[in-house]
Specification:
Layout (H helix, E strand, L loop, with lengths): L28 H8 L2 H8 L14 H13 L4 H8 L3 H6 L15 H8 L6
Length: 123
């Protein structure tokens, strides 16, 4: 079965969608952890998510850091962490989504290329 991925971020969020924050258990460990992490520090460390070479903008730092964290925490492959992300609202919230997304955040192999951009995330 082939899954689609959303090539651009933010375009699908409409005003009529219910916020994840209103649906989730705010005591869940991933919700608490997401609130404790200083995400701006990652953005400052990794720079502007826009690509200097032109073309499609890079994916947000929080998404990539979150996917790498979830991948390590749950011992997932690049493909499985992206596939499970689309099914799990806690994972989506942890990675910075405001509303539930029904499409993959990126192509499953996209996170492999970010090892060079985010070298601190590679073990």
């Amino acid at each position: 079965m082939s899954r689609r991925f959303r090539p651009q971020r933010g375009a699908s969020s409409g005003n009529n969608r219910v916020l994840l924050q209103e649906q989730l258990n705010l005591e869940h460990p991933l919700v608490k952890l997401s609130q404790a992490i200083e995400w701006r520090e990652f953005e400052a460390e990794f720079g502007n998510p826009m690509s200097r070479e032109g073309g499609r903008p890079a994916l947000p730092s929080r998404l990539m850091v979150g996917l790498h964290y979830l991948k390590a925490l749950y011992d997932e492959s690049d493909e499985s962490v992206v596939a499970k992300w689309v099914e799990n609202p806690y994972w989506q919230y942890f990675c910075g989504e405001k509303t539930f997304q029904h499409e993959l955040p990126c192509h499953p192999t996209s996170s492999l290329g970010h090892k060079f951009r985010y070298p601190y995330l590679c073990g």
